[in-house]
Amino acid sequence: MHPLRLKDGTTIASRDELYAALGAMTNKTFSTHCDEKKNDFASWIEHELSDKFLAASMRRATNKEEMRKALFVAMFR
Predict the structure, then answer these.
(1) How far is Cα 25 from Cα 68, in angstroms, rounded to an integer?
(2) Is the pLDDT of residue 61 over 90?
(3) Where does 11-62 have alpha helices with state H?
(4) Beta-carbon-side half-sphere exposure of residue 59 (alpha carbons within 13 Å)
(5) How far apart are CA 55 and CA 59, in angstroms?
(6) Under 8 Å CB-to-CB from 74, ≥6 apart: which residues?
(7) Residues paired with 34 in a beta bridge
(8) Contact yes or no for 12/6 (Cβ under 8 A)
(9) In this predicted model, what pLDDT tens digit does every residue of 13-23 receive, in sequence order?
């Protein structure tokens, strides 16, 4: 498994770490990795953590809060 490296230097190696990072992340960093054409977070979840269901939920999210909610729900399913 390869960690997700963000533009701001943050390294993420788990769903829990991504959840925490999204809570602290600036909007600028978020928009660098997620916009209408790409979603690095969902791609990483799908390809590195092999969770297609969560990746699909994250692709439907339109902001950090919705993405964190998708992660939170996945932690308890």
Answers:
(1) 11
(2) yes
(3) 15-24, 27-33, 40-48, 52-60
(4) 13
(5) 6
(6) 15, 51, 53, 54, 57
(7) 39
(8) yes
(9) 999 999 999 99
What is the spatial distance between Cα 24 and Cα 1, in angstroms, rounded to a whole number?
23
Average of per-residue pLDDT across 32-41: 96
How many Cβ atoms are within 10 Å of 32's Cβ, its own excluded?
15
Is the predicted pLDDT of residue 76 greater than 90, yes or no?
no
Q: Which two tokens stand for residue 50?
A: 């092999």
Instruction: Using pLDDT thresholds of 50, 70 and 90, give the confidence band for residue 53.
Output: very high
Q: Which candidate, 51, 56, 75, places its Cα nearest to that of 1?
A: 51
Which residues, at least 6 apart from 26, have a Cβ–Cβ distance to it below 8 Å?
Answer: 8
Element (H, E) at 12: strand 11-12
